[in-house]
Specification:
Layout lengths: L11 E6 L3 E4 L5 H20 L18 H25 L2 H6 L1 H10 L1 H7 L1 H4 L23 H10 L1 E2 L11 H15 L5 H9 L2 H5 L26 H10 L13 E2 L8 H12 L6
Antiparallel strand pairs: 1-2, 3-4
Length: 284
């Protein structure tokens, strides 16, 4: 392109394509040259104002002394200034009071999203949807209770349930009958012979006579079709009955441990996480 439109006034470079297209020596348009020189000028200005050139042990810092880290730290300081009044109130209040304060509750939910994603989602899934071997947090099924105080304690101190294995004091036939009864409970029924074994073997002492579990012991509700360990098959149920859960005496035991976050998070962060988990849908 050129301000000169008449190709007869420009020299021919001798380059041609398809016998019709000729490369001429026309100068670029004036606007293009102005933009080009302005861009060169901006490069000089940028090198003067901002960090630009690496040196042997450092770099040119520019007269503004700007860095991405300084900008990040400044933005973070502004954010912390906005958060400070909320964080101060949360630190002084019990978690139940935070849940009851709409403003603090909303703040806790919003600010705990990242905490949940970093600390909880790898096991419990995004939005508390659960993962194989890890409980769903968005339903109303809780081993140790779904009240806000109980959730707070679970996060603070961790949880470690315990179930003995019955392989050493039961025959394969008895374990098979117990598995049949547990599966029947999940369907709203019962296996009469298995029910007697359920009581006589001591299962009812933890899971209750109705199989609905006891929060104070962290024992599972066997009637709600919510299973901790999958796939849900008769063999899987028999394995749990045979080897137990967190049974140190059996290398084939199921492992189900939630760690304590008391040493990893501040008390305020744990409170915010408790409020966040409570509002996922299953909090009582």
């Amino acid at each position: 392109m050129s301000d000169q439109k008449n190709s007869t006034h420009a020299k021919d470079t001798g380059h041609t394509w398809d016998d019709n297209l000729r490369e001429l020596t026309n100068q670029p348009p004036r606007w293009w040259m102005i933009s080009f020189y302005l861009s060169l000028a901006w490069v000089v200005v940028y090198f003067v104002l901002f960090p630009a050139l690496p040196l042997a042990n450092s770099y040119t810092k520019g007269i503004l002394d700007w860095t991405q880290m300084k900008e990040f730290q400044g933005d973070l300081a502004e954010l912390e200034k906005i958060r400070a009044p909320f964080e101060t109130r949360i630190a002084k209040m019990p978690v139940s009071a935070i849940l009851g304060d709409k403003e603090l509750s909303n703040y806790s939910v919003q600010s705990a999203k990242v905490l949940f994603g970093d600390r909880c989602a790898p096991c419990h899934g995004n939005g508390g949807a659960g993962n194989p071997g890890f409980p769903v947090l968005a339903d109303d099924d809780w081993l140790f209770g779904g009240k806000i105080e109980q959730i707070h304690q679970s996060i603070m101190n961790g949880r470690r349930g315990s179930m003995p294995g019955f392989a050493t004091n039961s025959t394969p036939a008895e374990i098979d009958l117990l598995a049949q009864h547990v599966l029947a409970l999940s369907e709203g029924g019962s296996n009469p012979v298995g029910r007697n074994l359920f009581v006589n073997k001591g299962c009812a002492g933890c899971h209750g006579m109705d199989g609905k579990g006891l929060e104070m012991m962290g024992s599972a509700n066997l009637t709600d079709k919510i299973w901790r360990f999958s796939p849900v098959t008769k063999d899987s149920v028999k394995h749990t009955i045979s080897h137990g859960v967190n049974n140190a005496m059996d290398k084939n035991t199921r492992n189900a441990v939630m760690p304590s976050f008391a040493q990893q998070l501040s008390d305020a962060e744990i409170k915010k996480l408790a409020v966040y988990v409570h509002q996922l849908g299953g909090g009582k």
